[in-house]
Amino acid sequence: ACTCLSREAAPDRGARREHLRGRARGPGAMRVLPAATVAVLSAALQRVAGLFEDEVGQHEWVLQQVGAPTAFAYSSDGSAERVFVASASGAVASIALNDGQMQWRRVTTTTGAVRILRVAGRTLVSVADGGLVQSWKISSGDLAWQREYASPVLDAVALGSGKAQHIVVLRDSEVESRTAAGSHEWSAAVAEVMGATPSSAPRFWAMAPAPEDGRLCVVGTTSDGTALTIRMNAASGEILGKTDLPQGVHQGLRRGHYIVTDTHLVFLTKDKKVKAVPTCGGELVEFDLLKVKGGGAGKDGSGFRLLPWQRTHGVFAVSVGGDASTAVFGLGASGLRLLRTFDSAAVVGPVLSAHEDEVGQLVAVATTEPQGMQMQLMDPASGNAQPAVQAPDYSSADHGPARLLLVHELSSGEHRTVISAADHSFAGVQGGKVMWVREEALASIRRAAFYSRTAAASAADRQQEPEIQEATGLAALMAQLTNLPGHLAKEPADIMAAFAAWVTPRRRATQRKMNLMPDAVVPTASEELRDFGGDKLVIVATRASKLFALEATTSEIVWTKYLGLPIDGCEATDACAPSMELLPSQAAPASELLVLVPAQDGLTAMWLEPLTGKALHSEAVSTGGAALAAVTPLLPMGKHHLHGQHAAHSPVHPCIVIDANRGVHALPAGSTEVQQLASENTDRIFHYEVNTNTQVVQGFVVSRDGRGKAHDLLPLWNLELGGVGEKVIAATTPEHREWDHVPVHIKGDATILYKYINKNLVAVATEESVGNSSSLNLYILDAVTGHVLHQGHFPGGSGPVSLAACDHWVVMHYRNPKRTRFEMTVVELFQAKADDGPWDIIFGGGHGANHTKSAHHLDMPVPLQQTYIFPAGVTAMGVTATLKGITPRSLIMALTTEHIFMLSKDLLNPRRPYPQTTAPASGGGKKKPSVPAQFAPTKEEALPPYAALLPVKPTDILTHALSTTGIEGIISSPSALESTSLVFGYGLDLFFTPVQSAKAYDVLSPGFNYVLLYLSVGIVLVTWAVTSVWASKRALQDRWK
Q1: Which residue, 658, 545, 661, 670, is CA-closest to 598?
Q2: Which own/partner contact pairs does 241-250 have at CB distance under 8 Å and 24+ positions apart?
Q3: What's the count of helices (H) and strands (E) in the chain, helices before strands?
Q4: Residue 769 to residues 451, 725, 779, 820, Cα–Cα distance (Å)
Q5: What is the predicted pLDDT for the residue at 541?
Q6: Fewest beta carbons less than 10 Å away: which of 55, 647, 810, 819?
């Protein structure tokens, strides 16, 4: 279920000290003076292409990533020292051991993870979720062969060497062998191998190479509890023998807690025991985990977890008590025995060499402690460990517990360690020094927001700011002009300091001071962009429970904060990921970062300083285990000051949190004044919920309970879509509501069209299927009243659907399988209001203030709609943003072709006139539909005629020749220039670029001759000074005559 908040009177900008009010702002409730003044300029701005070849690398950057590591592999083949990484994002990559740079990357799938990675000679075999097996050339990453199976692959092993090498693939229904080149050799079905009937539900579970060369042992079970192992010839698939396995193996496999360790099958039981049996048959050995320190934790074995086996011969590990401790076990001739117990989360990995696949029988054991990473080599035969090597720059406080480990021994005897942690990062360590770190949590961003680095950092300073009275028209302009001299004379020193800082660009001495990812490339003109208002942070919350603040212009990591894993067994999912919100908004002069982290019985709320990540306040929110639904600012601090504990020590911005059980929480909970403010704002805060499970859209209002507190949601309206066979597949609200916008459109004949600006709009896309055909419906609702403002029906439409909304328009991209193409629909809403001239706009209608109107009294808008053909699929859409909304907006779309494309909103204009067609000779033809006369374009407007196909120009591709994979979201923010918008795209890859939808009309070109300008001004000043002195002397001489 997707739940969000609807704000009737959300602040347009942070400088305006307004808050939620009971009356919804209608189309006239806005500051129209700047918009009316510059609307003519807005209409005159022309569209421009996005990026040319000589502009590549000046301002934009792309950061390609791997994702959360799931497996490591190493090969001694070739001269390059590298490690191969498989990820939960479906990628396989080759990473240089010396600097961590990516040598090559291949994305196998965008819908699953790569769980298995095996080195087979000069190739690398990967297995992805869903049954995709691929073989890659180690040197270049080129695809050698691939095979997609109908069911998931359980395991893949490489047997033999050279031309006699086989790749054996195991599924629950079949075992198959292929050559290193991918040619099919043999396959055997489970019923044939086990000699069982289909009614007994036979299936395979695991396999391992036999102690004899060229043989394979496969473990299978039937529904009657029988478990047996089948020995096979790996070259021919011939069955060599069958052996029954001991009782208990079948039940252990069914529970799913098992791994294959060399030639043994290891599993956990409900009675808190770890058991092992040879895959080729033999005696069952066991160990009581209650003897391990901390082994009493958990019920029914829930406190124990088998760690993934990482090719450590005869050694595996068990996590005890939810990573509280780790037990390392050894399997050998003497059976199963406990080698060592660590008092924290530990990981066991192999020790490899460039000349041998293993060095003796040593294994590596590593832990991440608050003091740093500790790694030591251990002898599996005796359990003795060498002195630990400590790397203080990779600690559990910053990265969490260790997850994967691989150690490479150099010819000099030194060891290079590659270790990954719970925050999805992995690092290269040599000796006690961390050589490089890859923060792969950035590949799992859930939420992102821009924040200006010029914002005030002190809450006390923000409280001292005077309240700004709301006014419009000439009264507001005159008030600003009247106060201007006082502001200029108030702080001359500050004004001079600010001017000096403005004219003196900030430059770094070297790029070595920057905390960059190994593959990051700093744009050549990044410093220039910072001087023009691009000095912003991109603050992101990831599914790895980690926060990042990136410098927008360079991708430098400014600060990070690892929040830990508060819920055991909950990792890298949306349900466990933190949520964040800037309070009161991104447009405010200064904001606080509210982070809500899921906990065992509710949420943990933390207020952070966005510039540094410093914690301001933290408290627990009891929701009865319910997840977060929505957050809204309660009241801007500049208007009402909080007193007491929070105001005196760590003042934070109050807010209201709504959980999935529809509970309302006013935070900080310990402040009586915050609770009073929450009660005062009841019946003025509205909430809506789009439930994709029940296919219902509902609206609520925050009301008081019996004790007078704002703790209840009162249902107002609901729209049941499931009852008519529709399924909700997408929903969105207007973007950039916190920034200014132009409320009117001026036609070519100087008449005005009034846009229907309603910040409470909600766009919902649904899909309905009848037989083999499908169709889409688009609903545009008022979230306060539930009124359906517009409904569109699109026969043949199908998902996936991407929605974008801003100002008074909604754009929907969808697939039309019936016509085998993608289509885009645009809907614009206008007021049914005649043009009354500019007098009311400029002078405020004679009242000198904004007018507010209840959402229940708003007139229905006039919708205009057109549909276009788009030649590519879209994975994410965003909208450009500017400070005043003067510059024409553009859509930023992430295409399925791994490019990011800019499309001017001027092309997606439903007012584009249809070409006049000649009627047939019979006179029975129909003309194309036309827009109402009031909204029809005039001859003076440069509006192109309607054309069904939207072109994709190469110069409109913002990424140029670079590729961006798996983009899931696009955000934008204004810069100091009205012409320029900052765009950030996130997913598996990250992308940033400034966008100028109408050229840089407010800044000089980069090739401008500044030297000549300064020289000319200098000559004029010198000439003026000389002539002034000469004229005064001449006048004095004339008087003495």
Answers
A1: 545
A2: 242/194, 242/195, 243/280, 243/281, 244/281, 245/219, 245/277, 245/281, 245/284, 246/277, 246/283, 246/284, 248/275, 248/284, 249/219, 249/221, 249/277, 249/284, 250/221, 250/225, 250/226
A3: 12, 64
A4: 43, 8, 17, 17
A5: 96
A6: 819
Measured from the Cβ of residue 852, the count of other Cβ atoms closer than 10 Å reads: 15
In one-letter notation, the amino acid at residue 653 is H
CA distance linking residue 981 with residue 734, whole number of Å: 17
Q: For residues 606 and 653, is the Cβ–Cβ distance under 8 A?
A: no
CA angle 516, 522, 525 (to 5 degrees): 145
| Furthest-apart CA atoms within the chain: distance in Å | 132
**Residue 582 pLDDT:** 93
CA distance 976 to 450: 14
Binning pLDDT at 50, 70 and 90, where does residue 94 land?
Answer: very high
Average pLDDT over residues 952-964: 89
Block residue for tokens 């006014």: 471
pLDDT of residue 25: 33
Reported for 465-471, long-range contacts at CB under 8 A and 24+ positions apart, including other chains, are 465/589, 465/638, 467/17, 467/638, 467/639, 468/15, 468/16, 468/17, 470/16, 470/17, 470/18, 470/849, 470/850, 471/848, 471/849
Q: Which range is least confidently modeled, 252-256, 411-415, 654-658, 918-922?
A: 918-922
Q: How many CB atoms lie within 10 A of CB 662?
A: 17
**Type of residue numbered 923:** G
pLDDT class of 126 with cuts at 50, 70, 90: very high
- Per the CB < 8 A criterion, the answer to whether 454 and 535 are in contact is yes
* Residue 130: both structure tokens together: 């869903």
779-796: burial string, b at 16+ Cβ within 10 Å, e else: bbbbbbbbeebbebebeb
Whether the Cβ atoms of residue 275 and residue 284 lie closer than 8 Å to each other: yes
Against a cut of 0.70, is the pTM above it? yes
Q: What is the mean pLDDT of residues 297-312?
A: 75
DSSP 3-state percent helix, strand, coil across the chain (nearest 5): 15, 40, 45
- Report the distance separating Cα 376 and Cα 357, nearest Å: 19
